[in-house]
Amino acid sequence: MKLPDFTWWRNRYIRFLITALLVIMTACQMQVENTKNLQSVAANFTPVTIETCGITITYKQPPKRVITLNQPATEIMLALGLEAQMIGTAYLDDRILPEYQKTYSQIPVIADKYPSKEVLLGAEPDFVYGSFPGAFGKDAIGGRKELLSLNINSYLAAGAIEVCPQKRALVENIYSEIQDIGKIFGVSDRAVKLIAALKQKLQDTQTKLGKVNPPKPVFWYASESPPYTVTVDSLPNQMLEFAGGRNIFQEKAQGTYISVNWEDVINRNPEIIILSDASWSPAKEQRQLFLTNPAYGKISAVQKDKFIVIDYSYSTSGVRFAQGVKILAQSLYPEKFK
Question: N or C: which end of the chain has fewer CB within 10 A?
Protein backbone atom coordinates (compact mmCIF):
# COMPACT_ATOMS: atom_id res chain seq x y z
CA MET A 1 0.00 0.00 0.00
CA LYS A 2 1.34 3.41 -1.00
CA LEU A 3 1.72 5.88 1.87
CA PRO A 4 0.34 9.44 1.48
CA ASP A 5 2.73 12.07 0.25
CA PHE A 6 3.04 14.16 3.43
CA THR A 7 5.43 16.63 1.75
CA TRP A 8 2.77 17.51 -0.82
CA TRP A 9 0.11 17.98 1.89
CA ARG A 10 2.49 20.04 4.02
CA ASN A 11 3.36 22.39 1.13
CA ARG A 12 -0.31 22.75 0.24
CA TYR A 13 -1.15 23.59 3.87
CA ILE A 14 1.63 26.19 4.01
CA ARG A 15 0.37 27.80 0.79
CA PHE A 16 -3.14 27.91 2.27
CA LEU A 17 -1.86 29.59 5.45
CA ILE A 18 0.09 32.17 3.46
CA THR A 19 -2.95 32.99 1.28
CA ALA A 20 -5.20 33.29 4.34
CA LEU A 21 -2.72 35.58 6.08
CA LEU A 22 -2.48 37.80 2.99
CA VAL A 23 -6.28 38.11 2.83
CA ILE A 24 -6.45 39.00 6.52
CA MET A 25 -3.60 41.51 6.20
CA THR A 26 -5.28 43.15 3.18
CA ALA A 27 -8.60 43.39 5.02
CA CYS A 28 -6.90 44.86 8.08
CA GLN A 29 -5.03 47.37 5.91
CA MET A 30 -8.31 48.42 4.25
CA GLN A 31 -9.93 48.81 7.67
CA VAL A 32 -7.01 50.95 8.88
CA GLU A 33 -7.16 53.12 5.75
CA ASN A 34 -10.94 53.51 6.10
CA THR A 35 -10.56 54.47 9.78
CA LYS A 36 -7.89 57.03 8.89
CA ASN A 37 -10.14 58.40 6.13
CA LEU A 38 -13.09 58.78 8.51
CA GLN A 39 -10.89 60.43 11.16
CA SER A 40 -9.49 62.86 8.56
CA VAL A 41 -12.97 63.79 7.35
CA ALA A 42 -14.24 64.32 10.93
CA ALA A 43 -11.24 66.52 11.77
CA ASN A 44 -11.95 68.86 8.82
CA PHE A 45 -15.71 69.01 9.28
CA THR A 46 -17.64 72.22 9.85
CA PRO A 47 -21.37 71.97 10.77
CA VAL A 48 -23.53 72.98 7.81
CA THR A 49 -27.22 73.53 7.04
CA ILE A 50 -28.39 72.55 3.55
CA GLU A 51 -31.80 72.74 1.86
CA THR A 52 -32.60 70.37 -0.97
CA CYS A 53 -36.00 70.02 -2.63
CA GLY A 54 -38.11 71.23 0.28
CA ILE A 55 -36.16 69.62 3.14
CA THR A 56 -33.69 71.56 5.33
CA ILE A 57 -31.16 69.56 7.36
CA THR A 58 -28.37 70.65 9.69
CA TYR A 59 -25.37 68.31 9.68
CA LYS A 60 -23.50 68.47 12.99
CA GLN A 61 -21.15 65.68 11.97
CA PRO A 62 -20.40 63.87 8.70
CA PRO A 63 -22.50 60.78 7.93
CA LYS A 64 -20.82 57.44 8.62
CA ARG A 65 -23.36 54.93 7.27
CA VAL A 66 -24.47 55.95 3.78
CA ILE A 67 -26.77 54.22 1.31
CA THR A 68 -26.92 55.53 -2.26
CA LEU A 69 -30.12 54.74 -4.14
CA ASN A 70 -29.09 55.69 -7.69
CA GLN A 71 -26.01 55.27 -9.85
CA PRO A 72 -25.26 59.01 -10.22
CA ALA A 73 -25.24 59.39 -6.42
CA THR A 74 -23.02 56.32 -6.07
CA GLU A 75 -20.50 57.66 -8.58
CA ILE A 76 -20.40 61.13 -6.98
CA MET A 77 -19.59 59.50 -3.62
CA LEU A 78 -16.86 57.39 -5.21
CA ALA A 79 -15.47 60.35 -7.17
CA LEU A 80 -15.10 62.22 -3.86
CA GLY A 81 -13.32 59.28 -2.24
CA LEU A 82 -16.13 58.60 0.25
CA GLU A 83 -16.38 54.83 -0.18
CA ALA A 84 -15.41 54.24 3.49
CA GLN A 85 -18.72 55.80 4.53
CA MET A 86 -20.83 53.70 2.13
CA ILE A 87 -22.60 50.66 3.59
CA GLY A 88 -24.80 49.97 0.58
CA THR A 89 -25.86 50.92 -2.94
CA ALA A 90 -28.87 50.24 -5.15
CA TYR A 91 -30.26 50.62 -8.69
CA LEU A 92 -27.43 50.36 -11.21
CA ASP A 93 -28.72 51.61 -14.58
CA ASP A 94 -25.76 50.40 -16.61
CA ARG A 95 -22.02 49.84 -16.13
CA ILE A 96 -20.26 51.58 -13.27
CA LEU A 97 -17.40 53.80 -14.48
CA PRO A 98 -14.23 51.67 -14.92
CA GLU A 99 -12.15 53.85 -12.61
CA TYR A 100 -14.57 53.12 -9.75
CA GLN A 101 -15.32 49.45 -10.49
CA LYS A 102 -12.84 47.96 -8.02
CA THR A 103 -14.00 50.16 -5.15
CA TYR A 104 -17.66 49.73 -6.07
CA SER A 105 -17.34 45.93 -6.02
CA GLN A 106 -16.41 46.08 -2.32
CA ILE A 107 -19.65 47.86 -1.33
CA PRO A 108 -22.77 45.73 -0.68
CA VAL A 109 -25.61 46.04 -3.20
CA ILE A 110 -28.71 45.99 -0.99
CA ALA A 111 -31.19 45.87 -3.90
CA ASP A 112 -31.13 45.53 -7.68
CA LYS A 113 -33.61 48.40 -7.91
CA TYR A 114 -35.01 50.40 -5.00
CA PRO A 115 -34.84 48.59 -1.65
CA SER A 116 -37.94 47.93 0.40
CA LYS A 117 -38.46 50.01 3.51
CA GLU A 118 -37.57 46.98 5.64
CA VAL A 119 -34.29 46.37 3.80
CA LEU A 120 -33.34 50.05 3.88
CA LEU A 121 -34.01 50.50 7.59
CA GLY A 122 -32.48 47.12 8.37
CA ALA A 123 -29.13 48.40 7.11
CA GLU A 124 -29.29 51.16 9.76
CA PRO A 125 -28.11 54.08 7.59
CA ASP A 126 -27.63 57.58 8.94
CA PHE A 127 -27.76 59.14 5.45
CA VAL A 128 -29.70 58.15 2.31
CA TYR A 129 -28.71 59.77 -0.99
CA GLY A 130 -30.93 59.73 -4.09
CA SER A 131 -30.61 61.22 -7.57
CA PHE A 132 -34.25 60.83 -8.61
CA PRO A 133 -37.47 61.49 -6.65
CA GLY A 134 -38.63 57.91 -7.15
CA ALA A 135 -35.84 56.82 -4.82
CA PHE A 136 -37.93 58.11 -1.91
CA GLY A 137 -41.29 56.81 -3.09
CA LYS A 138 -44.26 58.39 -4.84
CA ASP A 139 -44.15 61.31 -2.41
CA ALA A 140 -40.43 62.11 -2.37
CA ILE A 141 -40.77 64.89 0.20
CA GLY A 142 -42.96 62.74 2.43
CA GLY A 143 -40.52 59.85 2.20
CA ARG A 144 -37.61 62.06 3.23
CA LYS A 145 -39.61 63.55 6.12
CA GLU A 146 -40.36 60.05 7.36
CA LEU A 147 -36.64 59.21 7.29
CA LEU A 148 -35.88 62.42 9.15
CA SER A 149 -38.37 61.45 11.87
CA LEU A 150 -36.25 58.30 12.33
CA ASN A 151 -33.06 60.41 12.65
CA ILE A 152 -31.95 59.43 9.15
CA ASN A 153 -30.77 62.35 7.04
CA SER A 154 -31.15 62.39 3.28
CA TYR A 155 -30.21 64.26 0.12
CA LEU A 156 -32.16 64.51 -3.16
CA ALA A 157 -30.35 65.93 -6.17
CA ALA A 158 -31.68 69.30 -7.33
CA GLY A 159 -31.49 67.90 -10.86
CA ALA A 160 -34.73 66.10 -10.03
CA ILE A 161 -36.69 68.96 -11.57
CA GLU A 162 -40.02 67.18 -11.15
CA VAL A 163 -39.63 67.91 -7.42
CA CYS A 164 -37.44 71.02 -7.65
CA PRO A 165 -38.92 72.84 -10.69
CA GLN A 166 -37.50 76.18 -9.63
CA LYS A 167 -33.91 75.03 -10.23
CA ARG A 168 -33.25 75.09 -13.95
CA ALA A 169 -29.51 75.80 -14.39
CA LEU A 170 -28.98 72.11 -15.06
CA VAL A 171 -25.19 71.71 -15.26
CA GLU A 172 -24.86 74.20 -12.41
CA ASN A 173 -27.16 71.92 -10.41
CA ILE A 174 -24.54 69.18 -10.68
CA TYR A 175 -21.79 71.48 -9.48
CA SER A 176 -24.00 72.60 -6.57
CA GLU A 177 -24.76 68.99 -5.69
CA ILE A 178 -21.07 68.08 -5.58
CA GLN A 179 -20.42 71.16 -3.42
CA ASP A 180 -23.23 70.14 -1.04
CA ILE A 181 -21.94 66.58 -0.68
CA GLY A 182 -18.45 67.97 -0.11
CA LYS A 183 -19.75 70.15 2.73
CA ILE A 184 -21.89 67.39 4.24
CA PHE A 185 -18.89 65.06 4.46
CA GLY A 186 -16.22 67.63 5.26
CA VAL A 187 -14.36 67.18 1.95
CA SER A 188 -15.01 70.54 0.28
CA ASP A 189 -11.45 70.59 -1.04
CA ARG A 190 -12.10 67.38 -2.99
CA ALA A 191 -15.38 68.80 -4.30
CA VAL A 192 -13.60 71.93 -5.58
CA LYS A 193 -11.03 69.81 -7.45
CA LEU A 194 -13.69 67.54 -8.95
CA ILE A 195 -15.79 70.48 -10.18
CA ALA A 196 -12.70 72.13 -11.69
CA ALA A 197 -11.84 68.89 -13.53
CA LEU A 198 -15.39 68.58 -14.93
CA LYS A 199 -15.41 72.20 -16.09
CA GLN A 200 -12.02 71.76 -17.76
CA LYS A 201 -13.13 68.63 -19.60
CA LEU A 202 -16.24 70.42 -20.85
CA GLN A 203 -14.18 73.42 -21.97
CA ASP A 204 -11.64 71.22 -23.77
CA THR A 205 -14.43 69.55 -25.76
CA GLN A 206 -16.03 72.84 -26.76
CA THR A 207 -12.66 74.31 -27.75
CA LYS A 208 -12.02 71.40 -30.11
CA LEU A 209 -15.57 71.51 -31.42
CA GLY A 210 -15.46 75.23 -32.18
CA LYS A 211 -18.46 77.01 -33.67
CA VAL A 212 -21.02 74.78 -35.36
CA ASN A 213 -23.48 76.36 -37.77
CA PRO A 214 -26.02 74.98 -38.29
CA PRO A 215 -26.13 72.30 -35.58
CA LYS A 216 -27.15 68.82 -36.75
CA PRO A 217 -30.83 67.89 -36.15
CA VAL A 218 -31.02 65.05 -33.64
CA PHE A 219 -33.75 62.82 -32.20
CA TRP A 220 -32.91 61.61 -28.68
CA TYR A 221 -34.95 58.42 -28.39
CA ALA A 222 -36.11 57.28 -24.94
CA SER A 223 -38.88 54.71 -25.49
CA GLU A 224 -41.74 53.63 -27.74
CA SER A 225 -45.55 53.41 -27.23
CA PRO A 226 -45.73 56.38 -27.49
CA PRO A 227 -42.21 57.56 -28.30
CA TYR A 228 -40.54 59.67 -25.63
CA THR A 229 -37.76 62.15 -26.13
CA VAL A 230 -35.88 64.67 -23.99
CA THR A 231 -37.41 68.08 -23.28
CA VAL A 232 -35.74 71.34 -24.18
CA ASP A 233 -35.27 72.08 -20.44
CA SER A 234 -33.53 68.79 -19.64
CA LEU A 235 -29.90 67.98 -18.90
CA PRO A 236 -29.61 65.66 -21.93
CA ASN A 237 -30.82 68.51 -24.17
CA GLN A 238 -28.25 70.86 -22.65
CA MET A 239 -25.54 68.28 -23.25
CA LEU A 240 -26.71 67.91 -26.86
CA GLU A 241 -26.44 71.67 -27.39
CA PHE A 242 -22.95 71.72 -25.86
CA ALA A 243 -22.01 68.97 -28.35
CA GLY A 244 -23.25 70.90 -31.40
CA GLY A 245 -26.58 69.16 -31.91
CA ARG A 246 -30.15 70.46 -32.06
CA ASN A 247 -33.12 68.59 -30.63
CA ILE A 248 -35.77 68.24 -33.34
CA PHE A 249 -38.36 68.75 -30.58
CA GLN A 250 -38.14 72.17 -28.95
CA GLU A 251 -41.32 71.84 -26.89
CA LYS A 252 -41.07 72.91 -23.27
CA ALA A 253 -42.34 70.67 -20.48
CA GLN A 254 -41.66 70.02 -16.83
CA GLY A 255 -39.38 67.05 -16.37
CA THR A 256 -36.74 65.35 -18.49
CA TYR A 257 -38.91 63.54 -21.04
CA ILE A 258 -41.91 64.36 -23.18
CA SER A 259 -44.30 62.18 -25.18
CA VAL A 260 -44.32 62.83 -28.95
CA ASN A 261 -45.67 60.88 -31.95
CA TRP A 262 -43.93 58.93 -34.67
CA GLU A 263 -45.45 60.99 -37.47
CA ASP A 264 -43.68 64.10 -36.16
CA VAL A 265 -40.40 62.20 -35.78
CA ILE A 266 -40.60 61.07 -39.41
CA ASN A 267 -41.62 64.51 -40.72
CA ARG A 268 -38.83 66.30 -38.80
CA ASN A 269 -36.38 63.82 -40.33
CA PRO A 270 -33.40 63.80 -37.91
CA GLU A 271 -29.91 63.24 -39.31
CA ILE A 272 -28.84 61.47 -36.12
CA ILE A 273 -30.68 59.31 -33.56
CA ILE A 274 -29.30 58.95 -30.04
CA LEU A 275 -29.98 55.68 -28.22
CA SER A 276 -29.51 55.51 -24.44
CA ASP A 277 -28.18 52.09 -23.45
CA ALA A 278 -29.54 50.88 -20.10
CA SER A 279 -29.95 47.56 -18.34
CA TRP A 280 -33.72 47.95 -18.60
CA SER A 281 -33.66 49.14 -22.23
CA PRO A 282 -30.71 47.86 -24.30
CA ALA A 283 -29.67 50.08 -27.23
CA LYS A 284 -29.35 46.98 -29.43
CA GLU A 285 -33.09 46.36 -29.13
CA GLN A 286 -33.88 50.04 -29.73
CA ARG A 287 -31.81 50.05 -32.91
CA GLN A 288 -33.60 46.94 -34.19
CA LEU A 289 -36.91 48.75 -33.69
CA PHE A 290 -35.86 51.45 -36.15
CA LEU A 291 -34.29 49.06 -38.67
CA THR A 292 -37.19 46.60 -38.82
CA ASN A 293 -40.16 48.98 -39.03
CA PRO A 294 -40.71 50.09 -42.67
CA ALA A 295 -42.33 53.35 -41.55
CA TYR A 296 -39.10 54.49 -39.88
CA GLY A 297 -37.14 53.75 -43.03
CA LYS A 298 -38.11 57.20 -44.31
CA ILE A 299 -35.94 58.84 -41.63
CA SER A 300 -32.54 60.02 -42.90
CA ALA A 301 -30.72 58.73 -39.79
CA VAL A 302 -32.19 55.26 -40.31
CA GLN A 303 -31.43 55.20 -44.04
CA LYS A 304 -27.77 56.11 -43.36
CA ASP A 305 -27.53 54.04 -40.15
CA LYS A 306 -26.56 57.13 -38.15
CA PHE A 307 -27.09 56.08 -34.53
CA ILE A 308 -25.17 57.27 -31.49
CA VAL A 309 -25.19 54.82 -28.58
CA ILE A 310 -24.42 56.26 -25.16
CA ASP A 311 -24.83 54.74 -21.70
CA TYR A 312 -27.92 56.12 -20.01
CA SER A 313 -25.90 57.28 -17.00
CA TYR A 314 -24.03 59.85 -19.09
CA SER A 315 -27.28 61.79 -19.42
CA THR A 316 -28.06 61.87 -15.70
CA SER A 317 -27.19 64.40 -13.01
CA GLY A 318 -23.76 63.10 -11.99
CA VAL A 319 -20.04 63.15 -12.70
CA ARG A 320 -20.41 61.73 -16.23
CA PHE A 321 -22.00 64.68 -18.03
CA ALA A 322 -18.75 66.29 -19.26
CA GLN A 323 -17.52 63.01 -20.72
CA GLY A 324 -21.02 62.51 -22.14
CA VAL A 325 -20.75 65.81 -24.01
CA LYS A 326 -17.41 64.69 -25.41
CA ILE A 327 -18.84 61.35 -26.57
CA LEU A 328 -21.71 63.12 -28.33
CA ALA A 329 -19.48 65.77 -29.92
CA GLN A 330 -17.02 63.16 -31.19
CA SER A 331 -19.88 61.15 -32.68
CA LEU A 332 -21.56 64.16 -34.29
CA TYR A 333 -18.37 65.77 -35.64
CA PRO A 334 -15.60 63.13 -35.74
CA GLU A 335 -13.52 65.25 -38.13
CA LYS A 336 -13.00 67.86 -35.40
CA PHE A 337 -11.46 65.33 -32.98
CA LYS A 338 -8.87 63.65 -35.17
Answer: N
